[in-house]
């Protein structure tokens, strides 16, 4: 993972903490969901169960602990096979589960969903070796849903990954219902992500406000809104 991604993720956590101090609950919760989603994606343990969850903002100390654990896991991604790293991922899932109304139930559902998803991915990769993947059914299903879609560049920006990585994830079936358009471009259903495009817009506006204040005030604290 690049240093830039590390800085971006740390900035997200710090901004959640700052908004929490300002008692701006709505923006804090939206940004918290975005931050958790990016973390789970980078850990390769994202699960659609998260879409159904509502996270309550924990205390400042708990947020800092979550931020530090996130950083520790990301720092070990290159040696991800270590048992300690997997234990820390489980701790991370446990911590975010405690921010929901039913922590134990959430924890079990997330772990079960991750195992199910990994099993399906393995089966899908094996099947691809024997038969081409038919995407026509996915295309029709998504059209019927009449939902919003992300391009690979939009998803890359949202998750802090490269466009190439997103395309590879699409090819490996990481995004449910993703398909190639008539022009050969990937389209990713919005319901693969925790936050909607409208919520993404709120987050983008927030960071634009931070950048604007920085430019106007020079070297002041980047969170001095």
TrEMBL record:
<feature type="domain" description="Helix-turn-helix">
    <location>
        <begin position="149"/>
        <end position="193"/>
    </location>
</feature>
<dbReference type="InterPro" id="IPR010093">
    <property type="entry name" value="SinI_DNA-bd"/>
</dbReference>
<dbReference type="GO" id="GO:0003677">
    <property type="term" value="F:DNA binding"/>
</dbReference>
<dbReference type="Pfam" id="PF12728">
    <property type="entry name" value="HTH_17"/>
</dbReference>
<protein>
    <submittedName>
        <fullName>DNA-binding protein</fullName>
    </submittedName>
</protein>
<dbReference type="InterPro" id="IPR041657">
    <property type="entry name" value="HTH_17"/>
</dbReference>
<keyword id="KW-0238">DNA-binding</keyword>
<dbReference type="InterPro" id="IPR009061">
    <property type="entry name" value="DNA-bd_dom_put_sf"/>
</dbReference>
